[in-house]
Amino acid sequence: MAWPVLQQLLLIAAATTAAASSSATTPDGPAPWPEQFHAVLFTNLTNVSIASTGPPLRLHDLYYDWPRRRNLNLIRHQLSGDPLYDVEWNNGTTFYFDSATCRTQQVPVGVLPPGWLADGGAVYLGRETTGGIDCRVWGKADFILYYEDALTGRPVRWNFLDVTGLQQFVMSFEVGVVLEDDDQWQAPAHCFLDEAAHGTNEDDDHLDEWQAAMLFRKLAGAAAAY
Ligand SMILES: *[C@@H]1O[C@H](CO)[C@@H](O)[C@H](O)[C@H]1NC(C)=O
Ligand SMILES: *[C@@H]1O[C@H](CO)[C@@H](O)[C@H](O)[C@H]1NC(C)=O
Ligand SMILES: *[C@@H]1O[C@H](CO)[C@@H](O)[C@H](O)[C@H]1NC(C)=O
Fold it and tell me: What range does the record give for the signal peptide (predicted)?
């Protein structure tokens, strides 16, 4: 009679071990980004002190287009009618403009590759529910916390761990959607004026916004380091 009891105990022990090890096991890795997508992001610059020169809440339309090596963030501040464009090209040029101002920067990295997180350097931090969605959480280079849907691998949220405290929540994610209209990507004439005539210095009113806009470039730099 002792034998079945022992067998049961062993089965329970085996099942418990399996459950414990499957929840403690690091998943294979985060999903790579699809090569093209359109995402609507709700953005909060949570460091109110650095966001004080501009409204901290924004809506971003992110058009990621890896085959054409370009990336566009169309940024709408809360209750502002004049959207900001942040256009990044693979040659390292970033244009950041609205209807009146423009800022350009040359950086030594191209557009963020689809494998920026999946191809190395991601640290698994465990499961967490955010916005009611069960997520796997990843960190990279002490620079970002990245939440992906545990079921689908789709991005749900990311927090940049820099002074802006920028947090983005993925409200929609459309794989394969491309912004075809080249006029939307084209930097306007006032981006090509004499450098001295428009500010590219670091101490202007939009520094916080510029820092926030440059975060994807910094991510690309961090990705390139692996
Ligand atoms: C934005 O972040 C700030 C600082 O963490 C927080 O107090 C505020 O509630 C957030 N706003 C929204 C709409 O999430
Ligand atoms: C990079 O490419 C963009 C888009 O074609 C162009 O406007 C920009 O002038 C280029 N930058 C450099 C440094 O060649
Ligand atoms: C928030 O911004 C201020 C002003 O730039 C900066 O001094 C501070 O370190 C930032 N806070 C965090 C937590 O990064």
Answer: 1-20
Q: What's the CA-to-centroid distance between 66 and ligand 1, angstroms? A: 32
Each residue of 145-178: pLDDT tens digit?
999 999 999 999 999 998 889 999 999 999 999 9
Q: Which two tokens stand for residue 98?
A: 């609205």
Lining ligand 3 with CB less than 6 A are 47, 49-50, 163
- CA dist 53 and 215 (Å) reads 18
Task: Domain count for the chain, please give it.
Answer: 1
pLDDT of residue 188: 95
Residue 63 domain boundaries: 36-123+165-225
Q: Find the Cα–Cα–Cα–Cα dihedral 185, 108, 198, 183, rounded to 10°.
A: -10
Q: Whose CA is nearest to atom 4 of ligand 1?
A: 46
Task: Say if CB 66 and CB 35 are below 8 A apart.
Answer: yes
The number of the ligand nearest the C-alpha atom of 51 reads: 3
